[in-house]
Amino acid sequence: MRALQISNTATDLSLQDVPFLSNYDCVVVGAAGLVIQGSEDEAFTSPVTLATLTSSLAQSISLDYQYIRVSTAANAALIGN
């Protein structure tokens, strides 16, 4: 099991290792209401919502974009195997 902390700063998934690469699935854990966004560019000019955490429990997420972040000044954790 591996974990990767993300924040409101863009995380480049192309620089990560398996299982935190684009087109992989993992679990995200964070506070209820956090929005996890993905984008093809580091500036997030066209962010896409990947997940809105409905509770503080784990939620499955697909890493479909090169960059990922939390939409607000908060942290979340990606967990994968």
Q: Can you describe this structure?
A:
With 81 residues, the chain is an all-beta fold. It has one domain. The chain has strands at 2-6, 11-12, 24-29, 35-39, 48-52, 59-63, 67-70, 76-80. It has a four-stranded antiparallel beta sheet, with no helix packed on it. Strands 2-7-4-5 form a four-stranded antiparallel beta sheet, with no helix packed on it. The relative contact order is 0.40.
Topology:
Blueprint: E1 2-6, E2 11-12, E3 24-29, E4 35-39, E5 48-52, E6 59-63, E7 67-70, E8 76-80
Antiparallel strand pairs: 1-8, 2-7, 3-6, 3-8, 4-5, 4-7
Percent of residues in helices comes to: under 10%
> Structural class, please?
mainly beta
Helix and strand sequence: EEEEEEEE
- Number of separate structural domains: 1
Beta strands, count: 8
Shape: globular
Radius of gyration: 11 Å
Poorly predicted residue ranges: none
Classify the beta-strand content into a percent band: over 45%
Mean pLDDT: 94
Looking across the biggest beta sheet, what order are the strands in?
1-8-3-6
Query: Helix count?
Result: 0
- Cα-to-Cα separation, first versus last residue: 5 Å
Major sheet details:
4 strands, antiparallel
Summarize the structure.
This protein has 81 residues and is mainly β.
Core attributes:
46% strand, mainly beta, 81 residues, globular
